[in-house]
């Protein structure tokens, strides 16, 4: 495959992901969203394995529960049943969109994704490259921070989600900002403006 064909193939995949995600955003049928989520979940399990899929699904389920709870608490213009249905609908929509993006990133390397974005200016491609390269590093740092906090006696509490998040998010944000500052210094010393 020539470089031009590779670029066009990746560009076509990106356009396809954008079109499918646009369809999911506009779609109002909960059953179509649910079937899509189940199908993409099965495909992800086949491509990436069950353990990796569960790791990716845990934060989505937490966010989904928060969405349903917030709809129940703060969407007072509707009756209880409609608030619950609206929360479930929104949660399924977010899960299906996230699983679509997970599937695309699992089946396509970051270099190919950047190659498919050939029409963007160089500064955007550099930003995308840095983002794609830092995501796995941040995931590993998250795992390290959780391990360190557990070794210090941190135990998760079901009742207080804020108690669970803060001991992990604060060090993760600190490390992320520190890494971004180091990256900015390196780019500045190498002549990037």
Characterization of the model:
The chain is mainly alpha-helical and 193 residues long. It has helices at residues 3-26, 30-48, 50-74, 80-107, 110-116, 122-151, 161-189. The chain folds into 2 domains: 1-119, no CATH class; 120-193, no CATH class. It is built from 7 helices and no strands. Helix 1 packs antiparallel against helix 4 (80-107), helix 1 crosses helix 5 and helix 2 packs parallel to helix 4 (80-107). The longest helix has 30 residues, at 122-151. The mean pLDDT is 85.
Question: Strands, helices and their partners?
Answer:
Layout: H1 3-26, H2 30-48, H3 50-74, H4 80-107, H5 110-116, H6 122-151, H7 161-189
Helix pairs in contact: 1-4, 1-5, 2-3, 2-4, 3-4, 6-7
Could you give a short description of this structure?
With 193 residues, the chain is an all-alpha fold. Helices cover 84% and strands 0% of the residues.
Number of helices: 7
- According to DSSP, the number of beta strands is 0
What is the typical, i.e. mean, pLDDT? 85
| Number of domains as seen in the coordinates | 2
* Helix-strand makeup class: mainly alpha
Beta-sheet strand percentage? under 5%
Q: Which oligomeric form is depicted?
A: single chain
What would you call the shape?
globular
Order of helices and strands: HHHHHHH
Terminal Cα span? 35 Å
Low-confidence stretches: none
Q: What is the share of helical residues? A: over 70%
Largest sheet: none
Return Rg in Å. Answer: 20 Å
